[in-house]
Amino acid sequence: MRTSDFDYQLPPELIAQTPIEPRDASRLMVVDRARESLTHHYFQHLSQFLRAGDLLVHNRTRVIPARLYAHKPTGGRAEILLLRPRSETVWEALVRGRGVRRGMCLDVSGGAEGDQVLARAEVLAEGERGLRVLSFDRSALLLAEQVGQTPLPPYIHEPLRDPGRYQTVYAQVPGSAAAPTAGLHFTPDLLRQLQEAGVQCAFVTLHIGLDTFQPVRVECPSDHRMHTEYCSLPPDAAEQVNQAKLEGRRVIAVGTTSVRVLETAALQATAEDRDGQACLGQVVVPFEGDTNLFIYPGFSFRVVDALITNFHLPRSTLLMLVAAFCSKRLMDAAYAEAVRQRYRFYSFGDAMLIA
After folding, report:
1. Which H, E and C letters describe the chain, residue by residue?
2. Checking CA distances to 117, which of 175, 258, 283, 325 falls within 20 to 30 Å?
3. How many domains does the chain have?
């Protein structure tokens, strides 16, 4: 298996530039793994493919206005993308701008044109591909909420009129640099409809960070190093998952981030069993901490029975996760069909249900 195996050709016009209205008017490809069949529907009809007792697991992370503008001591511009907090004032960030080195202080302003200086950020450490550790002289999150801009992926060129459309309707926990896009299709009405049909919901958190912006650059996927991201499976959600698995009900992950939280918690349960700690046969245990779980073909899923996801970039870890879940051959057929049927791709694009 090579990274180049996960490349595909996509006409640029199929990259969705704006969100569809309403949210659940997006198209939905249903991929049946057992029958190896593909059918075409709309997301608002999702309840037709779920059943009473199914447990939908959503990522409730909230995108922060993580893009900040700054100037170097020379007057040159710099751009900061907040990724991950180490404390209230110290953050890992992507920094765009030449010569931003350790020890340099950046003046953060309210805009790209050099408005009033609102904060100062010192570069504490340098990493690869623009990664820096910055120490702010005030709360970075409060600063971002005051003057930051919502970051959009580089393939989206249209301005976003309503930043709320890059949030799920259930987003609660601030911390992501990008949206969990599979969740963008849900509306309050659709969630109520599913609840009335007996579909249950659980909520986890994974704050999406650096790897969302980085393709797999090595030719052997097993050589790719995932950066860690914060995730949490709360006790109540763990109980819901374990009860569903015990009763033979489906656990359906809404998005690849939910998959990674669930499977990380399952590996944690396995590790605790090996250490002789009592897990009482639980499939998952409550978990809060970092994950760098990289799921690619050959991975053994312990929790997830079905997956709702968008159509992902070539050579991405997300695409590899989908291939691991439904087989690469079926995924390739689904993506080829999506191109033929003119589906919309990527963050603001259409969805697929893999069951």
Report:
1. CCHHHHCCCCCHHHECCCCCCCHHHCEEEEEECCCCEEEEEEHHHHHHHCCCCCEEEEECEEECCCEEEEECCCCCEEEEEEEEECCCCEEEEEEECCCCCCCCEEEEECCCCCCCEEEEEEEEEECHHHEEEEEECCCHHHHHHHHCECCCCCCCCCCCCCHHHHCCCCCCEEEECCCCHHHHHCCHHHHHHHHHCCCEEEEEEECCCHHHHCCCCCCCHHHCCCCCEEEEECHHHHHHHHHHHHCCCCEEEECHHHHHHHHHHHHHHHHHHHCCCCCCCCCCCCEEEEECCCCCCCCCCCCCCEEEEECCCCCCHHHHHHHHHHCHHHHHHHHHHHHHCCCCECCCCCEEEEC
2. 175
3. 2
Q: Are residues 294 and 232 in the same domain?
A: yes
Are 205 and 176 a contacting pair, CB within 8 Å?
A: no
pLDDT in tens, 15-68: 999 999 999 999 999 999 999 999 999 999 999 999 999 999 999 999 999 999
Q: Are residues 108 and 197 in the same domain?
A: no
Judge if 120 and 265 occupy the same domain.
no
Beta carbons of 76 and 281 less than 8 angstroms apart = no
186 plus 305 within the same structural domain: yes
CA atoms of 50 and 355, how far apart (whole Å)? 10
Domain containing 76 equals 67-147
pTM for this predicted structure = 0.93
The CATH number for 83's domain is: 2.40.10.240
In this structure, are residues 105 and 120 in contact, taking their beta carbons and an 8 Å threshold?
A: yes
Instruction: Render pLDDT for 72-129 as a digit per residue (tens, 0 to 9).
Output: 999 899 999 999 899 999 999 999 998 999 999 999 987 656 568 899 999 999 988 7
| Residue that finishes a domain, picked among 91, 117, 147 | 147
Judge whether residue 213 has pLDDT over 70: no
Within a domain: 152:
no
Alpha-carbon distance 134 to 80, whole Å? 10
